[in-house]
Here is the input.
Amino acid sequence: MIVSSETLALAFKGFKTVYSEAYLEAPSHGEKIAMTIPSASRDETYGWLGMFPQLREWIGQRQVNGLKAHSFTITNRKFESTVSVKRDDVSDDRLSVFKPFVSEMGVSAKRHPDELIFGLLKAGFDTPCFDGSNFFSANHPVEIDGKRQATSNFQAGTDPAWFLLDTSRAVRPIIFQKREDYEFQSLDDSNSPHVFLNDEYLYGVRARVNAGFGLWQPGAGAKAPLNEDNYAAARAAMMGFKSDGGRLLGVSPSVLIVPPQLESAGLHLLNTEIKDGGGSKVTKIKGAGLVHSPALHLTALAEEGEGDKPTIAAQSRGRGAGAVARCQRGRYSRPAARRAGPG
Here is the structure.
């Protein structure tokens, strides 16, 4: 094959098609528990976290609530994944050898948000949120009748962690912040210094995104044993959460997330029709099943079932997007690259 700008453009087009098909077909589940917020700068400050305005009967003038607003900033991070293709391989028409790697780029790019979102969820026991307490904590401050009270969304213990979330509302426990979406790029200009010195072309993916905590009230984390009593206690506590001022928030848990070692217990808890010991019947979730995802040994969500119990999401072990994508912490200058989005 004669290497020219036309053949290189065709190679990029072919790689982009492979990347895009893999990207579109790869399962991704972080969007089911996180809210995606577009970013317009290096970082975004969320000053509205902690504010829960409520309606009241309008008598006299408007009453302006001076509720405490918490400020929480999420700084975007840059990620990339790059492969090199020798000029000789293009000349010898061996591009098909690299298609699996490009396909894996698409899969990794699609699953990378899962890695950030579920990784943050796992770190919630030791990572502060907007009110200064760890996201899963026994000491979230809530002011009711002028007095500060400690509210817990955490069950202590030494067992594998499990999580109960309400994902039915617009404001969710996790924020996925997107500054620049995942782009497939190439550096294939024969006149560029890199190509001239290394006799190779570069193809890669880049993005500027990050994940951070939203409201803690729609989430609960536990390291206590996953059994009927602890599950019921976590569910009851969440449904009783109040905002500053004492208004009931109406939290309704909808998703249970478990690690592999608790998969059987979670299935038994949510899908058993008869309680242990022959007690009264409980509702079986319709349509709930396990969908495995290799996102940082974490979970993919089952289809939401009918009834008043959450669906179950089971952790799956795997290599995940982190094996390919890595955070680029320093500045790096390179010649202009051709770009293409996921589609």
